[in-house]
Amino acid sequence: MNSCSQKIPPSPRPYTPQITPGEVCFRVVEPNCFDTSARLRDMDTAKVNVQCLSTVPVMFSYWGKPEDTEEVSRFVNDDLLAQCQVAPDRLVPLGTLPMNDVRRAVEVRFCP
User: How far is the CA of 94 from the CAs of 6, 20, 56, 104, 108, in angstroms?
Assistant: First the structure.
């Protein structure tokens, strides 16, 4: 079985992983969304051979300033690539682009 999952880049400080728009918790984020080892264990349990990893939609940041969105996209894409390199035969990255600026959206030029 193949599937797709979302990843959240690591935080520079400890926190309770959750998505909280405003004052109400929308979703508690499970470790398999930011811990590659947990993701691989879950894949093994579910008999998933290969999984495409992408970021959560809020990290697309299309509402931001283009220069900020470009920086966020690079950060997210670099993290996705690093996470997928842990098990390149099982994890495939699906990056994001700063879609609010066409010139900046050519991020693909910077991929190895």
Answer: 9, 24, 11, 17, 12
Domain boundaries, the chain: 31-107
Give the global pTM. Answer: 0.71
List strand residue ranges (DSSP E) for the chain, in order: 2-7, 18-19, 27-28, 50-55, 91-93
What are the pLDDT digits (tens) for 11-70?
A: 555 556 666 667 777 777 788 888 899 999 999 999 999 999 998 887 788 888 988 988
Q: Tell me how far apart the alpha carbons of residues 25 and 97 are, in angstroms, rounded to a whole number.
A: 27
Contact yes or no for 96/76 (Cβ under 8 A): yes
